[in-house]
Amino acid sequence: LFGVDSGYRSHIVYTWVRGKPATFALKGVDGWSRPPLGQPSPVDIDFNGKRIRNGAMVWAVGTWPLKGAFYADLRKEGVAAGQPVNPPGYIHFGHWQDEVYFRQITSEYLANETFRGRVRRVWTVRRGEENHLLDCEVYNSALADYLGLSRMTEDQWKHLAAERGLPGDLDFFAPAPLLAQAAMPVPKPAPKPAEDKNAPKGERFVNARSGWLKG
Questions:
Q1: 53 and 46 in contact (C-beta within 8 Å)?
Q2: Which residue range is the domain that position 51 belongs to?
Q3: Is residue 68 part of a domain?
Q4: Helix %, strand %, coil % of the chain (to 5)
Q5: Which residue of 30, 51, 62, 154 has the smallest Cβ count within 10 Å?
Q6: How far apart are CA 28 and CA 37, in angstroms?
Q7: What is the model's pTM?
């Protein structure tokens, strides 16, 4: 399953997802009562205004409640903070995630806005910050809900692990696997090949100062 934000250069996204199975063009929508992933809407129509069969579809993502749930999970404390267990929804982060990532996923806050004569709470991006990676987190949550991952029980997860050939008692977020992951060496970039001084250099066909193009 693959999702692409269609809020920027929408026509390019529609062209790319058109006809691809399990590939969604996503669009965030406002509102606190929106589902994680709503019904898709056709965006490809012909000259008569009729829907084109197998055309591009846009899936609405209820970003507001998903952001609220994500920020609530960010506040949860687990074993690393001295708690006896990691609570449901506790978020684990990899050692490779840098400051840019954390600044972006915490780049929004709730502000008051007057809408149709009433004050409502809306998500607002902090001045000077970007929220692209927060959008990625939210869209991933929407697609995970579409797949039913948010409704899976512990027994269902164990059954899935057994189907994939994993030990039944494996805990991906246990301290030992995390320490082993942190100890893994970070791959170094490949060195650039040495320049061959004897290799023939490309010729310059047009002298920019010769006035050849001026007629």
A1: no
A2: 2-166
A3: yes
A4: 35, 20, 50
A5: 154
A6: 9
A7: 0.74
